[in-house]
Amino acid sequence: MEISVIRFLIVFVVLGLASLPAQAQQAVKQAGTITPGHATMWGSPGVIMDGGTAAAGFLTSLGVTNNGGPGICLNSAPITSPFNQMCLSVTTNGGAKISSYTYGGAVTPGITFDINGSLQGFPTVTLPTGISSKGSST
Fold it and tell me: Do the domain assignments include residue 132?
């Protein structure tokens, strides 16, 4: 009889201790509606919300640490089809770079800057083949 009581107490204590971490955790709540593909942000402690669109965003900061490769990229379409990609990158010793690439047979774009509605384009230039780095034909 005494062994049964001890077993009961051990099981009771173990089960009670096992439930403590679950009770200490707080569920994250959602505020407002969400849109698939939008960033999620903290609205207040324990509450997440939709981060908004590019035209009306609510994010106040975004940090990316990446030394050398593309840090922030924008694709024109899903990567399962032809698409263009523009990226920002930076290196500790090599400076910063804005890159524009095509993948899967997409049309090669130039880069256009829109400053207050005034467009300044930088077209894609194809260098001729058969010229060496010293300027003589090969």
Answer: no
